[in-house]
Design goal:
single chain; 192 residues; mainly alpha
């Protein structure tokens, strides 16, 4: 209409033949949900600590998470994967976790970062193993993305440790609780 060029909506899609669609759907769906949740966690932390001395550190990590989410948004379209129906819940839960941990102060926010990023790094490592077992050449692009993001999540983990995460009161209890939540979120987001 209007004489303009037609949109090519299919140009970003990946050839579906020969891929293990259920595995790829599960991986992309859960990773999208995880990056969405991470963005909401950092948004909550910035709402509380954005003007503090640790604000720029949190903002830097959040900026990387925004890139991760953008890439998984693109991969969802390319592989025709539907998002988890739990996104509205992760929207609220992520922000509450971020703001709640930040209300404990800089150390609390960093303890949350360590717990979440450690869980995500392990999760990405599991996905890397799965894709290598499937066919490393067939899933080369996806493997590169996941490896890069895993490395960046590990950097966030290390930044959290450098900023005294372990000095948070009841650190091990807080970390364990957050990681149990992450495991539940991963389990649910892969399936629903």
């Amino acid at each position: 209409p209007g004489g303009g060029a037609a949109l090519r909506l299919c140009s970003t899609r990946v050839k579906q033949e020969g891929i293990n669609k259920p595995v790829i759907d599960r991986i992309i769906r859960v990773d999208h949900a995880g990056e969405y949740g991470a963005n909401r966690i950092y948004a909550g932390q910035m709402a509380v600590l954005g003007r503090s001395s640790v604000g720029p550190v949190i903002q830097q990590m959040w900026n990387q998470e925004k890139v991760h989410l953008k890439k998984f948004n693109e991969l969802m379209v390319a592989y025709r994967v539907r998002p988890t129906v739990l996104l509205p819940f992760w929207n609220v839960a992520g922000f509450v976790l971020g703001a709640g941990s930040a209300l404990l102060g800089k150390k609390g926010a960093m303890a949350c970062t360590v717990a979440v990023e450690e869980s995500i790094s392990e999760h990405y490592n599991n996905q890397i193993r799965t894709l290598i077992e499937e066919d490393p050449e067939k899933y080369k692009e996806l493997l590169q993305v996941i490896k890069q993001f895993r490395d960046e999540e590990q950097e966030h983990h290390d930044i959290g440790l450098e900023h005294d995460a372990e000095a948070t009161p009841a650190y091990s209890v807080l970390k364990t609780a957050i990681q149990l939540g992450c495991k539940a979120a991963i389990f649910l987001s892969e399936r629903i």
